Amino acid sequence: MAEPLQHTVAVASPRMSRSREWACLYLGLGFLGLECLLWLPFAALLHLLLPREIGHRIGRRVICFGFDLYLRWLTALGACRFDVSALDDLRDAGPMVIAPNHPCLLDAVMALSRLPRAVCIMKSSLMNNLFLGGGARLAGYIRNEPTLAMVLAATDELERGSQLLLFPEGTRTVCDPINPCLPSAAIIAGRARVPVQTVLIETDSAYLSKGWPLFRRPAMPITYRVRLGRRFEPIDDHEALTRRIERHLAAEVTGSRLRPPPAPASRP
Question: By three-state DSSP, how is residue 184 classified?
Fold first, then answer.
């Protein structure tokens, strides 16, 4: 595995010219699209031919490698600065629910770039997406609906030793500091008897937040930092655990030195 991406977030960089920002936007999105398209036919074929467990393992490792390569491409362009090294402490930490806050669409990319054993809960619409669906199905990612099937599938994955990536806000943040958390993480952790590891994703940009158009140019470079929050042991009172997770994430986001402007979807 390549060395983790790191950046000292206290060091500021001058803003790029608009022409370079436009170039970085299209080169970045184009690179990700190309990765997905190149992997799609292989993922579809392997999904048909390989035993499920082997397919899941290969699919998750390829996604980890591909997303890590994508973050390195954005770094090489000068578009973004990433520090995701804190996630490496979770790689061999055993089964758990990994519960980050959710400021933007890059959150899952950052998390999965360092966690080769993680299975992700995805919106059903994304599972049918041309670019993402084939790789997600090979990796054994879980649809977020129907809810009961999601909970049972997630519990089964954790009992087999996987790690589960689940955003407790349910969607990208539109409330300050975070959206009200859903009980899914607490319910799944309680059924599987595994801890919930909170993760803080910090950024200084609203790029790809809720309501941000895909081809809207942001100011660059953008800084992203990931750090580990508190780890919660499972309890039978799912509502109580959900509120504890929500209070902790909200307090950590509020106290962060990296705070983006309001997301477009949250503006009056």
Answer: helix
